[in-house]
TrEMBL record:
<comment type="similarity">
    <text>Belongs to the hemerythrin family.</text>
</comment>
<feature type="domain" description="Hemerythrin-like">
    <location>
        <begin position="16"/>
        <end position="125"/>
    </location>
</feature>
<dbReference type="GO" id="GO:0046872">
    <property type="term" value="F:metal ion binding"/>
</dbReference>
<dbReference type="InterPro" id="IPR035938">
    <property type="entry name" value="Hemerythrin-like_sf"/>
</dbReference>
<dbReference type="InterPro" id="IPR050669">
    <property type="entry name" value="Hemerythrin"/>
</dbReference>
<dbReference type="InterPro" id="IPR012827">
    <property type="entry name" value="Hemerythrin_metal-bd"/>
</dbReference>
<keyword id="KW-0479">Metal-binding</keyword>
<dbReference type="InterPro" id="IPR012312">
    <property type="entry name" value="Hemerythrin-like"/>
</dbReference>
<protein>
    <submittedName>
        <fullName>Hemerythrin domain-containing protein</fullName>
    </submittedName>
</protein>
<keyword id="KW-0408">Iron</keyword>
<dbReference type="Pfam" id="PF01814">
    <property type="entry name" value="Hemerythrin"/>
</dbReference>
């Protein structure tokens, strides 16, 4: 299982997003470490914390997207839904079938998925938020929102 570590290359220069992302990386590392150490109870507890964190992490970004002119079913939000569905399914499979290999696979895949998601979709969202003058702390938009709801992910590569 390759470890994902927080590095400057993951920083998007949007303080709230960066803090949430750094916490995601740390929680994922806690799950990985517990799995490598063979500590199943600790791994499950850490994974459940990761799932809770990720649900709020994605909900926060989804709220920001809605507040800044994204359509409710945009591709960024749909990716959040898909990833969270897989993460929750991992808990179910583990609890019902005791399949620890599934959890290891999910942790491995999240470690590969997250940097790409952050550098494309989340970076696009951070740029968009800055362009419209959105303050995530207050929810205030100082600039002009797009005329038509955005259905893409926010990244230039996704338009």
């Amino acid at each position: 299982m390759t470890a994902l570590a927080w590095t400057e290359s993951l920083r998007l220069h949007q303080p709230q997003m960066d803090a949430t992302h750094e916490e995601f990386v740390d929680l994922l590392a806690q799950v990985r470490t517990a799995l490598v150490d063979g500590e199943q109870a600790r791994a499950l507890a850490a994974y459940e914390r990761l799932v809770e964190h990720t649900a709020e992490h994605f909900a926060q970004e989804d709220r920001w997207m809605l507040a800044t002119g994204f359509a409710p079913g945009n591709c960024h939000t749909r990716q959040h839904e898909s990833v969270l569905r897989v993460m929750r399914e991992g808990v179910r499979v583990l609890r019902e079938h005791g399949d620890w290999s599934a959890l290891g696979e999910i942790v491995r895949e999240l470690g590969q998925w997250f940097p790409q998601h952050a550098r494309m979709m989340d970076a696009g969202l951070a740029v968009h938020m800055a362009e419209v003058g959105f303050d995530p702390a207050t929810g205030h938009v100082a600039g002009t929102l797009p005329e038509a709801a955005l259905t893409h992910c926010g990244s230039a590569g996704c338009r």
